[in-house]
Amino acid sequence: MEILHKPHDGFFRTFFGRTRELGELLQQILPAELFRQLDPGSLKVEPDSYLDEKGREYFSDIAGSATIAGQKHKIYILVEHKSWPNKWVHLQMYHYIYRIWKQELKEQKSSVLCPVLPILFYHGPTRRIDPSLRSLFPPSLSAEIRGRQPELDLIIYNLSLPETIPGSCSATVAAALYSLKYARDNLTALLRVLNRLAREGGTAFLLSPDFKQIQTYIFSASSLTEQEIHQQIYTEVTNPVLQEEFMSTAQLIMQRGRQEGMREKAREDARRMLDKGFSIQDIVDITGLSEQEIKDLQEPHNQTQIHA
């Protein structure tokens, strides 16, 4: 359900948060010489949550690790996903790296720091992103002062730029990347690409669970209306299996969206009734919500009343 409510983050984490897909993504993102320094087969997905001294939990989008070729040392890989500009992403990544180091030093009793590769995966509005943390400092600083500030050079994969998706990746990873690139505001371009991938990947690709997940993301992320989506599918999709798959998925997503919209309206009506002193049973009878749902709404409502 996370893909429906937070389509970009939910899809990115669930699709590329798996070892095989993460490995293929890294092969596309990292410079070839750097990728060759990772031991083949050693990549694994790591827990993505970190605790600070006060026990607060922070989550990166994807965390992984691999051993460095010819060494016993491992390297951490942090991939942060952004679908919209965030000026302070360097600080966010720096915080994650600090937590990794703290955890590693505590658990391993090590006297050396584990290297970390910080990667920013971006597919928001087209813009230039400076990889350097020092770019956030005032430009008027002298070289002597600037050179003594912390540095962090992000590896940036800016999907919003043209020609960022090479032809060497698998059909499912290519479909995922093109979907992240186009689903929000260029469904026509996306459907044309998927037509090509359908020809190359065949029925096995079209009926795979991975492609079903991609379809769910596409229609959850699109800014088009249901009628516009149906029209685009009929106009642009020539593969009959692909057209049928798209239509059934689009209808399912739209139906879920309508149902969720109706339930949210019922919850809003219930909140108003609580304000007016309606009994829980009356609210259940009028809205169709369960008694437990009303009680769940009632608790934060009572807290608001107490602090008002």
Order of helices and strands: HHHHEEEEEHEHEHHHHHHH
How many E strands? 7
Determine the fraction of residues in helical runs and give it as a percent range.
55-70%
Mind describing the biggest β-sheet? 5 strands, mixed
- Please tell me the overall pLDDT: 83
Task: Please provide a written account of the structure.
The protein has helices at residues 2-5, 7-16, 19-29, 32-35, 89-108, 143-146, 171-182, 187-206, 209-221, 226-236, 240-275, 280-287, 291-307; strands spanning 44-46, 49-51, 57-59, 62-67, 74-82, 116-122, 155-158. It is α/β, with parallel strands linked by helices and 308 residues long. The chain folds into two domains: 2-164, no CATH class; 175-308, no CATH class. Strand 2 and strand 3 (57-59) form a beta hairpin.
Question: Which secondary structure elements does this structure contain, and how are they paired or packed?
Answer:
Layout: H1 2-5, H2 7-16, H3 19-29, H4 32-35, E1 44-46, E2 49-51, E3 57-59, E4 62-67, E5 74-82, H5 89-108, E6 116-122, H6 143-146, E7 155-158, H7 171-182, H8 187-206, H9 209-221, H10 226-236, H11 240-275, H12 280-287, H13 291-307
Parallel strand pairs: 5-6, 6-7
Antiparallel strand pairs: 1-4, 2-3, 4-5
Helix pairs in contact: 2-9, 7-8, 7-9, 8-10, 9-11, 10-11, 11-12, 11-13
